Amino acid sequence: MTTAQIPRIENALQQWIDPYLQTDLVSAECLRRIRVDQSIATVELELGYPAAGFREEMANALRQQINTCVPELDQVNIDIRWRISAHESQSKAPPMRRVSNLIAIASGKGGVGKSTTAANLALALAAEGAKVGLLDADIYGPSLPVMMGIADDARPETRDQKYFVPMSAHGVQLMSMGVLVTESTPMVWRGPMASGALQQLLNQTLWEDLDYLLIDMPPGTGDIQLTLSQSAPLTAAVVVTTPQDIALLDAKKGIEAFRKIHIPVLGIIENMSMHICSQCGHMEHIFGEGGGGRIAQEYQTPLLGSLPLDIRIREQAGSGTPTVVAEPAGKLAASYREIARAMAAQLSRLPVSNSIPGVVQMKDP
Fold first, then answer.
1. What is the homologous superfamily of the domain 5-83 according to CATH?
2. Which end of the chain is more exposed for a tag (fewer CB within 10 A), N or C?
3. pTM
4. All CATH 3.30.300.130 domain ranges in the chain, comma separated
5. What pLDDT is stored for residue 280 in this prediction?
6. Neighbours of 323 (CB within 10 A)
């Protein structure tokens, strides 16, 4: 055999649509090289998003596609890697050293499970092969230390009496006001004080070579959100909602707020989408059906995924072992990892930045 098979192999790749990028890998510029040695073909791919949990499935699908289009090949090797690049921010804030991408996890109102979703998304991205940080931007009611299993008396190390070393929880770097004060200390602060505290957490934490820093935003569109938009180089945002009409109205406000400050919205996550009875398996849409999809369609942004109303999600987060680490092989963890891959894939389609200093961007799983 000769290199005459290479165009046919490339054509086969163009016929397979990546479920997260929603396009073929050639058009997405993920194809790096095709080699043919006698009857053995090797395809080298480089994704823009982490995909440890999808790599084998993708390789098998591509191998089958190529074997169908080029049947004379005896063997097809698929080499899948990923490079998580730093992407441009529309904010005027200077880039953060050693942090590639800042993603705000937001909601228009409280009670939609945003913090639980942020914690599980961070863990899902880490499980997929990324280096992840999690910043709790809810100054008044920080909950992530409890969800991530940080001990009540644990405090971060300091450097030069100025910088915080982030806590480590389940392989994710974490910083929160909750690890700087006691559980019973109320944050009786006016807006400017809370905004100043957030800036300290953001700029005085020594994050270590992060592919993604997920920021768990407080609900609403107030001082904290404005502070972040002005002082943090946000790359993009994700909006979490539930199917109720009132939650959907507030989610719309959240999307509009990000659009006004030119922050791309990667998509919508519909939480508590349905309840499946643990006894009989009956599924019921307690809070309504299809609301997240309707908003996504209205604003022409993806519905990244839907999550069920499941008591295990609450119990596991409350015990300090969120679902992705509590039941890593379960269906709920799989759902979070699907959403994490979809979110990261959407981010990979944004323009790449060349101005992020000190970030290790090459990933060789």
1. Fe-S cluster assembly (FSCA) (3.30.300.130)
2. C
3. 0.91
4. 5-83
5. 73
6. 26
